[in-house]
Amino acid sequence: MHSPTIPLPLISRRDALIAGAVTAAAVSSASAPAAAAQPAPPAAAGPRAKLSLNVNGQTHSLDLDTRTTLLDALREHLHLPGTKKGCDHGQCGACTVIADGRRINSCLTLAVMHDGGQVTTIEGLGTPQNMHPLQAAFVKHDGYQCGYCTPGQICSAVAVLDEIKRGVPSHVSADLTARPLLSAEELRERMSGNICRCGAYSNIVDAITEVAGSRA
Amino acid sequence: MKPFTYEKAQSPAQAAAAVARNPGAKFIAGGTNLLDLMKLQIEAPTHLVDVNGLALDRIEPTPEGGLRIGALVRNTDLAADERVRRDYGVLSRALLAGASGQLRNKATTAGNLLQRTRCPYFYDTDQPCNKRQAGSGCSAIGGITRQHAVVGTSTACIATNPSDMAVAMRVLDAAVETVRPDGRTRVIPIADFHRLPGNTPHIETALERDELVTGVTLPKPIGGTQIYRKVRDRASYAFALVSVAAVVQRDGSGRVALGGVAHKPWRVEAAEAAMPQGAKAVTAQLLAGAQPTHENAFKLPLAERALAAALAQARS
Known about the structure:
The structure holds two protein chains of two kinds. By secondary structure, chain A is α+β, with helices and mostly antiparallel strands. Helices cover 36% and strands 13% of the residues of chain A. In chain A, strand 1 and strand 2 form a beta hairpin. In chain A, helix 5 crosses helix 8 (201-215). Chain B has helices at 12-21, 34-39, 75-80, 82-87, 89-96, 101-106, 109-114, 120-123, 165-171, 190-193, 279-286, 299-315, and strands at 5-8, 25-28, 47-50, 59-61, 67-70, 175-179, 185-189, 212-218, 225-231, 242-248, 254-259. By secondary structure, chain B is of the alpha+beta class. The interface between A and B is large, with 44 and 35 residues.
């Protein structure tokens, strides 16, 4: 519940939502057994597994609860918070990383399933001093507002350009047997697994188009 | 997620034996559906057998002139395979119409066949669901049913199968190859692979619990114009309201299967005799006996129009 020291007129939207959720829980638990109203105990410690992961060129040895997703291994254990947790269910694309050369949702895979594998995150693409061309293009074209989806958008875009180069077709490719075109329509379709709640889509397409054009 | 132990399988039969030994075990491959369901505790395996290391990731020609697709071939790779694009275009198109680029890179051929329904009541663990908990009841019946099945339903379940890939495999007469713990193999025609809900909607396929899918075979190419037309609420990255997989020959004959309308890819071979007469004649037989709700009755004319559009595309 929100802190009692915060005067009510200044209640934040977040606090209001939390307070609302608590109220809703209290109402819904009225007819439920008393135990159901207690907060859930912390998840019990589970079986563990040892694994090795090469992230951005550096090899790490990890000993993790088997339940640890690749996303949580990157953020919580390797302290690489550039990869974001949005929905945690593979619907938003904020957690997109490049694993063994392919973009994936790091929230929907277990770290242990990537034992011995290579992962590239946004931290591995470029640095503030030496940005990846797509990072620079996102800055130039304002390809974001809040920036939360941006690391996933950029990792996805890097892989999209590679997929087009390799001739991987998409839903909007008119001819399945021809090489896919580098059109805005193709980019929109291929980027549809990355949601931007701020709605920077048109600038994201402009940023990718510029980099794709300069590479062609 | 509930805690689980984990092992990497050494061979297909050994993987099946590992699942047979442990009543709480499940296979994991791409994991894009299973891990999602585990986070929600709709699935709670106590042991995972990771089959990703098995050499089931190749697409090879068969002696009969068709293709054998390994169970672990990723959806991206199957859609992009030159032979599939050339000879089985409806399959490539169906795959590309599903999910996102990230998901297709992980999702496997066998996993796509085995994915669970996206019925919102199956996902809501606060509500009864005969699929999630056998005998608990169906919350979708009498609920919000716009996305649900219109044919082959039962009083226990009106969920749909969410796969696009499986609809194309149904129209191509694919077959599913499996192995058991003792090494015995069998081949299940795709028509018999997915089940209708009946009184046991929690049993979704013909597979035994410890039976591992090793591959899918496609018969030799049948030619024709191959079309997959998917109608959905967004232009991309959404499940089908209705989809049509069609193979249309020059003389107007052909095959058709529907997605988004039933608990399995929906094909009625007898209805295909009416292909030269057009979409209305075909769907009249294909969807005979449909029992839509007032919220999803739109799927019947939508299926007819989607097929009409596919037939027009084939003629053009």
